[in-house]
Every structure is written in structure tokens, then in C-alpha cells.
Amino acid sequence: MKGTVLYGPRDIRFENQPDPQIVQPTDAIIRMSATCVCGSDLWPYRGLNTINAPTPMGHEYCGIVEEVGRDVRSIRSGQFVIGSFATSDNTCPNCRYGYPSSCMHREFMTRAQAPLLRVSLADGTLVPTPGLPSSDLLPSLLTTSDVLGTGWFAADAANVKPGSTAVVVGDGAVGLLAVLSAKQMGAERIVAMSRHDKRQHLAREFGATDIVTERGADGVARIMDLTKGVGADSVLECVGTQESMMQAIHAARAGGYVSYVGVPHGVQLDGQQLFFEHVHLHGGPAPVRRYLPELIDLVLNGKINPGKVFDLTLPLEEVAEGYRAMDERRAIKTLLRP
Ligand SMILES: [Zn+2]
Ligand SMILES: [Zn+2]
Question: What is the mean pLDDT of residues 3-25?
Fold first, then answer.
């Protein structure tokens, strides 16, 4: 088969790779129905994470099971399945506490921008749908694998409750789906911080009631205006920079909640400043597997349409253009069809 490999900054190649094989008896091989490029793929693509060797790419996936190892019990060939970017056994203490993305046997997926994928711990990691979904549902189902699950965690970890005020920092696909998630969890007021017309529009479609275009201290001042000087109940940080993190912490009210789901790059927090902020902080790699059954149901029942974040669809072999379009912010998120 051919798969996606990053060789260095802005050097994505679609090239020959060995077909994946069952390695452990708990593995499954799936044939990809759809995969995509993640905002987090852009960090190494831009050279902001150093890579030392050609690196296979991709961690968001859904598809049909081709083959399972001899110890796989609940997953069968022919099922349509979705899994998280992190594998999990669903039985260890961390999984039972609700943090499968910290599973004691976790592996991070890294080869999903390819037509075939090996998934370890198949029984714990993969969630089958009741039947084969129609192709128009594929984009929305694919988002549950990471971006929607991560946006959902952002809202959950920031304690979004019916009637609360939520602020979302970041207008990438995760931020936009954090808006959708906050709406589903009943937030009454949802402020999207975005300065891009197209993204503001989608944020409103997903449930944003207010748009703030300012950033940094000016952005915080606008949130304070909107909340009568108190700050927001919940702030969902979906970027991972020093500026976005401080903006999130300063925008929360005393006793408020800040979640952070953007992988931090160079973020440093001052202990004493944090002490006087009086906020709850909760973040990390989203425990997507915990949310998958509920999110898949919401999609299959037509309650949500998160697949709208894909504004570019390309054949898998044109993956390099998919990265370029996102890097240049011509596309919010690229869906790739094998
Ligand atoms: Zn991702
Ligand atoms: Zn586990």
C-alpha cells in the first residue's frame, strides 16, 4: 500500500509502505473509509516539533474491519468501526477512572493517513456502529475519532452546565466543535474567540451567541465586559500557546473552570499568579474512547452535524495538498478519502 510520511518541514510524501499485519493477537486491521489531517499534525509539519527520521502520519480514522487477531472477542470482520487516536484496553485502573487516553497499555496512533491500519487492543479501542453507516455520515463519524471527542472533553472538563457561560479560545476544528459540545451540554451563552469570517460563521452555526475578535489582554477585557466584570464560568482553551492559555485563565471567573486540550507548546505558568486566579484547571489528551458511544449515537440520530468542519475533501494520494491548505489556513480541516 501507499501511506503518508513526513520527511521534514513541509515535506509530506505519499509513498510505498509495507501493508500492516496482525502483530499481537489483540490487534485488528481496518480498511479506511475516511481519514483526515489534524491541527496537531501541523506542529511537526511546520518544523515546530523536530522529527529525526521519516515519520508516518495520521491518527483519526474510521473504516471496515478486515481481519482480527485470535484473541479479539467483540470486534469482527466486516464491522464499521471508529477508534480514538490513543488505544486503550478499557480494563486498567486509568481506563476505569474514565481516562482511556492514559491507559496503562496505551499506544498513540500514527499511521492512519493510509488505506489500511493496524489497531492494537482492538476490543478496548474500537467501537462498532449498529450497521454500515451511509456515506453522507462519514465526515461526522470521523470527527468522533478525535476533534469532536476533544472538543467534547474541553466542554466536559470545563464543567459546562445548563445555563452556564462558556468561552472558547481557538477557532480551529477542535475549538469549533468545543462550541458545538458546549451547546449540547446546555451552555446559555457561548463566546467564540475568532477573527476569521468563515470560522465565525461556523461557530454561530454550532451555537456561539457572541464572537470576540480581540486577543490577549484586549480579548480578556471584552469577556469581562460581556460578563459584567465577573468572568466566564467555563473557558475552553483549544490552542496550546502561552497567549491562549493566559487568555483562558484570565477570562474565567473566580471558582471557574479552564480546560486545555491544545497540546501546549512553550506554555509556562507562574505558581503565584495561578494561586490568585482561583480557577480549576483540567486538560490533557482527551479521553475520546469514553465519549465515543454517546457521540456516535448523536451523529447517527442526526442530532449533531460536526462533519461541517471539513471544508476540503481530497483523495488520499493528494494528502500533501491537504496539509498545505490547512497550513495556509485556506482550509479548516481536510478529509481524505482512500
Ligand atoms: Zn487529531
Ligand atoms: Zn487501560
Answer: 97
Give 108's DSSP letter. B
With a threshold of 0.85, does the pTM exceed it?
Answer: yes
Of 40, 76, 72, 81, residue with least CA distance to 58: 40
**Ion ligand 2: residues, CB < 5 A:** 88-89, 92, 95, 103
Quick one: which ligand is closest to 101's CA?
2
Report the separation in Å between the CA atom of 86 and the middle of ligand 1, taken as the mean of its atom positions.
10
Q: How far apart are CA 104 and CA 89, in angstroms?
A: 8
Q: Is 34 helix (H, G, I), strand (E, B) or coil?
A: strand
C-alpha cell at 45: 509539519
If you measure from the C-alpha of residue 146 to the centroid of ligand 1, how many angstroms do you get, rounded to a whole number?
A: 5
Instruction: Tell me the helix, strand and coil percentages in the chain, rounded to 5.
Output: 35, 25, 40
CB burial of residue 275 (10 Å; 0-12, 13-18, 19+): exposed
Alpha carbon of 326 to ligand 1 centroid (Å): 13
